[in-house]
Amino acid sequence: MLAQQLVNGLTLGAVYTLIALSFSLVMGILGVLNLAITELFMLGGYFGFTVIMAHLPLPLALAAGMAGAALVAIVIEKLGYQPFRTAPVVTPMLSTLGFSIILQNVVTNVWGSDPLQLADEVLTQRYTLGGVSVSAMQLTVMGATIVLVAALAFVVQRTSMGRALRAVAENRDVARLLGVSASRITLIAFMLSGALAGAAGVLIGLHYAAITPYIGVEIGLKAIAVMVIGGTTRIWGALIAGPLIGVLEVMTVAYGGSQVRDFVVYGFMILILLLRPQGLLGGSRSDQGQRV
Amino acid sequence: MMSTYYAGLLADVGILLLGALSVYIILATGQLSLGNAGFMGIGAYITSYLTVIAGVPVTLALVIAAVAAGAIGVVVGFPALRLKGIYLAMATLGFGEMVRSFFLNLGAMGGSEGFHGMHHISLGYIWSWAAAILLLIVILERSRVWLDMRAVRDDETAAGLVGLNATTIKVGAFGFGAAVAAISGGLFAHHHVYIEPGNFSFERSIDFVLAVILGGSTVGPGALVGAALLVMLPEYLRFLAEWRFAAFGALLVAMLLLRRQGLLDRATFRAFASRRAA
Amino acid sequence: MSATGPVPLLALNEVSKVFGGIHALTDISFEVRPHEIVGVIGPNGAGKTTAFNVITGAYRASRGEVLLDGTPITAEPSHRIARAGIARTFQNIRLFADMTVWEHLLVAQPHSEFPLRRLLPMRWGSPHALRRAQEVLEFFDLGAVRDRLARSLPYGIQRKVEMARAVTARPKLLLLDEPVAGMNHDEADTIRKLMQKLRDTGVSILLIEHDMAFVMKLCDRLYVLDFGVMIASGLPAEIRANPAVLDAYLGAAA
Asked: Less crowded by CB within 10 Å, the N or C end of chain C?
């Protein structure tokens, strides 16, 4: 039973990891909390759903969700971040909030506020591994997450673009002196973060075989807690915190009732903010420079 | 005679006004709170419990709820001192969600089923509270206390050096803001005569912030402008109806870009006030 | 503790301040007496601003004590030290971004009245504050810019506003951190005369400055810091001739 919950928790945790990474990229590189990510997550899910309902293959749905969300993220970067890049970081945060409000309204009008459901569930085969039953969908979610995270890690650690991202995270002015175009980098950061959020949306939608315009606030917002718990100064903190919070949440629902789960998750977040602001994976408190 | 529908709108303006003021008070010390719906919820549930189960008259119930919420606000205000900017925003967001989750789990007050049984209050009653509190704040803005708050917002270190205790001021603002949000909640509960945790969600907190930023974040009456805008504008621009939120989102971005202090600012308010007096 | 003579207004007894491995101040002792203008000079990084920060409570001394009128204030929070009678200005001017000159003078008023009066509109609750603010406004000749946003004013005027704000609560001791930095000769002269006027009204002044001519003309006594250590103290004429001081400045002209 416990192991079963563990699997469920890890599946949810995988989705949290993706969204938290999305938040973390923008927060780590620009210091901004991009509140539109919750709705990019939701929007990606809708794009993916549209593809699935047209009976097109799963990988295409994932690609559609990621590409669609990334495109909208570019628009938000141009209109919602660039004009405010010199203002105190709370201002672009509020501006992305404005975009999240717009996005949710648009989706509600285009697709309706009732849940969109898949006619048939996808990937319902179940496998039994060591006494635990795992569905093919759960394996897909976790597998896709691992692939995406690995791809992100490769980009960040091994490509020149990733090097540039890290440079800007360390110090924008120095990066500019070295010839790194800060505005191109922020665009890439937004795009990557949009793609990750969009992927998470497709995966969660497929997992539940349904999607509503409200999953952004219901699920996406909690990913902020995941980011904080993992450590806002280290984006890889999300890799630990995602599964941790996913499992914590599933356990809380199983043993404490679904009504307390948000209380527990956000309570944990506030404790971390107050007692160990660098997060579980962040270094010492003075380790503020190492972001990406 | 006013139609029930129109009366309902005006009631919503009054309730939103108080919520917006709660954000404004805290913002005046430089702290952005994204969780004031939590204090509103606390006020709603406490007043409802008092009037429905304990048989307390609604005015007294509101006062008790405001004091209780104020105390909670002070308790929240202390750890909040350690956080700035976005981190404070995130923590307050978390607080708001924790409160909502708390009431979801509180079977005694209905949990997810919600709570009802409150007596309906009149529009006049709602606006007695709303107008009184707005007036109180307008008067307070001319006092030394408000100047002290603005100093703490502008430069906490320099404020300390002119003898201001930033801790007392910032924590006090949280308490005061929480109390005002609680009254908003109590009035909401007795106007809609049914409450559920979903009424006090992150979206509600955002409504408050939106009203302040759009209406004017540097003067109290800005909250009135914002509340009126959010509730009434869709009524006058009927074609907007389904797109009202997108419009407000766009308006938020535009306002941040073009007129960061919001529609009503100190200069405009002073000009308006002196023209009225002449 | 010497028992001779009256208690000094401000005394630092063997104050040290260590940050991690950095010894910003080591065993600094000095004093300021009533009706004095004392200067603290030394090369950049000598620890002068650190000493100010220790006095005003921004930093807590690692060792030693700070006494105001004989009472230790070493561990007091900034706002209480301010209320006890120490005011300061900053090297990089720290005005309130959103306030007019007049509002600066109002917010700096002492908090001596009954707390509830502070909730009333100022015209009714604190008329004395309005009067005092007017007084300070005139003393510093800032009447013309009374209702201007302080940070929109020219640099020299901003410095005056900062000083005016510091003086409003009638402090016993005024700490000025580079009050004439970036000013031309005439502006600096105006400030010098203002400071002398202030001293005559009973305010003691402790100042940090790099402008040697200014310091020599104005100060009754000088202390010289280098690398957080006091290397000389005395009258301006003595300091000017002190070889250790000249050494520390690497021959920089006095």
From this structure: N
